[in-house]
Design a protein that fits this description.
Order of helices and strands: HEEEEEEEEEEEEEEEEEHEE
Number of domains: 1
CATH class: Mainly Beta
Radius of gyration: 23 Å
CATH topology: Porin
Strand content: over 45%
Number of helices: 2
Distance between the termini: 31 Å
Length: 417
Amino acid sequence: MKKLTFILLLIISAVINAQQFDLSAELRPRYENRHGFGTLIDKDADGTNFVSQRTRLNFDYKQEKIRLRVILQNIRVWGDVATMANDDKATALHEAWAEAILSDKVSFRLGRQEIVYDDHRIFGNVDWAQQARSHDAFLFKFTPNQKNRLDIGLALNADNEGITDELYSNAAGYKSFQYAWYHGDFNNFGLSFLLLNTGIEYLDNLDLQTIDYMQTIGPRLTYKSGKISGNIATYFQTGKSLDADVSASYYAGNIEYKVLENFTLGVGAEYLSGKDMNDLNSDVRSFAPLFGTNHKFNGLMDYFYVGNHAGSVGLTDIYATIAYQKDKFSAKLAPHLFSAAANVYNENFDRMDNNLGVEIDLTVGYKLDENISINAGFSKMFATDTMEILKGGDKNENNSWGWVMVTFKPQFFSYTH
């Protein structure tokens, strides 16, 4: 009741004072059948079926010198709360930030916010996950013209309002970060460059609080002309992490060609460095995509870098896409050929073939209305013995995943003065 009262007061106050105010919502239930999702399923094990749901209430407010966004969201699995429950703790703030607009070129933003750049590989909002991702951060934005932009971001995290310095639990994944991101458009080309410094706090061998900083540095280049589009990117990671030296790399590129008005073909490849399984050196050689929307990459079954595969043998992903879109209907077929970027060994210390297997992803979508869409997908993993070494489970089982999601995005109110 207190939350509802606060929301109503916020709406009334915003409308009275707004130059622009928008109130919208999102309700997104998703059914999933998981039978080898994220890892190979064990022999004779049963898969799982469930429905998860995200419900959001979105407030956007703008005056000449200020922007404000508040997104309240509730995340649940159908059935995880009793039918007569009097307390629901699944509601939280996804975003809550204010932005001071100093001029048409300069502004700064403070608060809980999504941070998204380029193709989501290093910074993304992970929108597929019902809870998504947001950061507590300061963001300075400089846009000298329509073709150039520079962002500088800072974050500093703590577990509570302490009296003395306490070890941070790294709940956010980092104690602090500082970054600069530049993007420029030049005719048919777009160029981005990221410089990110990420600090993780831990107790060293003398039980002293220590922060190690790792740097992620690299450019991304895009190209679009007529029916052809493509991009290439490379990032390098250096510095230290948990008292270990870091030396890792990432390379990616893809190209798409619009064959017909409704058909697009594409091919691409990604390489994320890894570390041989028999390498006992403490150095970090496995590339970490950090805060990216990892579900968007390396197959939709989330076998790699979605809460797993960190500090492992890396990955080479060679893939193709066949996409169709017409009116309200869309479809995409995407096969992936996976292989380890470093050496894998079995329990007898025999080196395995680097081939991990093939995943095939099929997704379809249809817009019932401007504010209602239905999406569905089916994925199948054809794994190898090497994948079994990395993941466990049984490659000969039916490792598959299917889902159906309905998204409602009503616009309740829009006021411009």
